[in-house]
Amino acid sequence: MSEVKLVLSYKETIQSKLDERTKELIIHAKNASQNAHAPYSSFHVGAALLLSDGEIVAGANQENAAYPSGLCAERVALFKFGFDKRDRYLVKAAVAVPQIKGENLVPPCGACLQVFAEYRAMQSTPIEIVLVNGSGKVLIAPDIYTFLPFAFTNRSFKYFI
């Protein structure tokens, strides 16, 4: 058995040190969190996707009394992109949880990471992920695979054929 060593590449910073386009994307994600439907968890999350042509697509989490029928903010935005914008590709995504303060940051859940990985495999270019909290702390990962290095994608099927 061979040993696998994973190197997680990311950087932590604060919002004021970011480029203007990333700051704008974060603002869209924070604003989207205000449209969350979260009557059960009170956990408001916003996501914003930067597309290759500069357009921004946003989404917020949508809960439902018939759990798990709701969707996370990331998948709301990703499925909007997948339905309407497939002639472009994803450059960057910001995920904002403004109610979280201090040092804590909230990454996308496993289901959202899997959906990100599907689009990442289709476009063959990295999707930068930006996490931000209500205190302005930011984590930037150069690619979705930082969070899900062994993603199951359409390329995984070759092992089953």
From TrEMBL:
CDD domains from the UniProt entry: cytidine_deaminase (cd01283)
Assigned GO CC terms: cytosol
Biological process, per Gene Ontology: nucleobase-containing small molecule metabolic process; pyrimidine-containing compound metabolic process
Residue ranges occupied by any CMP/dCMP-type deaminase domain in the UniProt entry: 20-155
Residue ranges crossing the lipid bilayer per the database entry: none
A Pfam match: dCMP_cyt_deam_1
MF annotations from Gene Ontology: cytidine deaminase activity; zinc ion binding
Protein family according to the UniProt entry: Belongs to the cytidine and deoxycytidylate deaminase family.
The protein, known as: Cytidine deaminase
Organism in which the protein naturally occurs: Schleiferia thermophila
